Model the fold of this input.
Amino acid sequence: MDDRIRPATPADVDAVRAVTDAAYRPYVARIGLRPAPMDADHAADIAAGRVFVTGDPVVGVLVLVAESDHLVLESIAVDPGAHRQGVGRRLLAFADLHARALGLPEIRLYTNAAMWENQEIYPRYGYEVTERRQDGAYDRIHYRKRISEATPDER
Done:
């Protein structure tokens, strides 16, 4: 598998959509609506330089949005056929490197409260819960990671 993480190009739109849909589809029944990443404007995000991919064919997608004082990890998606191959871990490590390269001191993200798997994963990579709140129809748990802290993979 191609382990390189690269900026997505317009030619990747369909692959980004397919991986995102495959990764988030299992949650639709659990949370009662489509997770927000499934309805994102992937072409616009790619054009804005927010999307990074890995694999040939694409098996991992990362959407990062730089704010003035932090990096938002908007979405991370791994094709179910590529689970347990380190794709998610590599994408999270890339987010750390990207934040550092931009001089941003922390990464923020949120996950739906019904996505209990994520609540087990993110703390393992140095993320701490900052709050839980209702954002429209979504019950979200918000996290942050100060990127000066080493992750277990960086120790």
Summary: The two ends are 25 Å apart (CA to CA). The chain has five helices and seven strands. The helical segments are 13-24, 27-31, 42-47, 87-102, 116-124. The longest strand covers residues 138-146.
